[in-house]
Amino acid sequence: SSGALSNDADFAFTQFDDSKYENYQFVPVNVKPVTDAVGFEAHASADGGSTYDTGSNYKVFSSALTSFYTAAYLGNASGDTGLNGIFHIYNAGSAKFTSSVNLMTWTKSDGSINYGGGTGSAHIVDEVTDAIRFKFASGNIASGTILMYGIKKS
User: Fold this and answer.
1) Cβ proximity of 44 and 99 under 8 Å
2) Which residues contact 90 (CB under 8 A, 6 or more apart)?
3) Which of 3, 16, 19, 154 is the most exposed place for a label (fewest CB within 10 A)?
4) 63 Cβ contact list (under 8 Å, min separation 6)
């Protein structure tokens, strides 16, 4: 599944299928914000995307957060590439194990500065994650694409 973005407030994937997949991979391609210098966020849902958890139920180390930690802060200058990377979500189909993510990113900012990074965080609630929403902390998503892949259960 994929979504081409153009001045969208957010983008959600609600096609999770626990009977086939428990792990998912999302690939942002040149995802740029409308607003300059903003963080990229991801929120989990346990009700098919009707609501998303924005409470302090995400952890990186011992810090409580209101979204999965992405460490991605992006600009919108003409030379900026936007967010590119791989976002893995593990154990989405398990209500007994915390959903966790690993994220590797690459972006070019200010037309010449390249940034690469990797991080991880967890959604610390015992519920099945069946949807995820991507957005910026402020403003809309100007452009880009996000691809979704399910990793088949063995």
Assistant:
1) yes
2) 22, 23, 99, 100, 101, 102
3) 154
4) none
